[in-house]
Amino acid sequence: MDRNIEKRNELLAQKVIKGLGSRNMTGYYAKDREEAKRIALSLIPEGSSVTMGGALSAHEIGLVEAVQTGNYVFIDRAKFENPREAMLAAYDADWFLSSANAMTEDGVLVNIDGNANRVSCIANGPKHVLFIVGMNKVCSDIDGAMKRARNVAAPINAQRFGLNTPCSKTGACQNCKSPDTICCQFLITRFSRHAGRIHVILVNDALGF
């Protein structure tokens, strides 16, 4: 990566981390994917129960594989026959791994969900939430973050899952009410009432969508 881009990301990350701190959340900056994984594993004590939502970024830095093969209790929702049982198990986890569809320079996280399993765990339930966020997700303000979530993340995810939504065909949000829409629940996390619960690792890379 160009050194000028790295410097810009580092400076921007410090601004985001300061914003997170003002919102009772903790931020970290990783210069690359490997450092992001190291920071994440330093936060999660061995023996912890860990689960996740659709966090592609956590896969991309190797965190999911490390948790699955390490000394942790990984709650794999794919192995549950009953989706409700999987959700209840996730709510009781020590750590929930997630990404963000977008976030602002002053530390506000924006996420959109279809079934709400991810946003509900971010809002309440698991003892800790750990976000892995590439610097490509950082936007100047809430308006920009919402536009990114709806016009970048949502269409790509709809295409990835083969959903029959207008955005999967046009590549941009049409504010639809399609039966397949994944824009059912919007969560804006602007403050954490519980100090030490939400952690955000900003990665000097483009991760996820």
Task: Give the gist of this structure.
Helix content is 40%, strand content 21%. The chain is an alpha/beta fold and 209 residues long. The model has no long low-confidence stretch (mean pLDDT 95).
Structure notes:
This protein has a domain at 3-107 and 116-138 and 191-203: Rossmann fold. The chain is 40% helix and 21% strand. It has helices at residues 3-22, 33-43, 56-60, 63-69, 83-91, 117-123, 142-160, 166-170; strands at residues 26-30, 49-52, 73-74, 95-98, 102-104, 109-113, 128-134, 138-139, 185-189, 198-203. The strands form two sheets. The chain has a six-stranded parallel sheet. The chain has a four-stranded mixed sheet with strand order 8-5-6-9, with helices on both faces. The chain is globular and about 40 Å long.
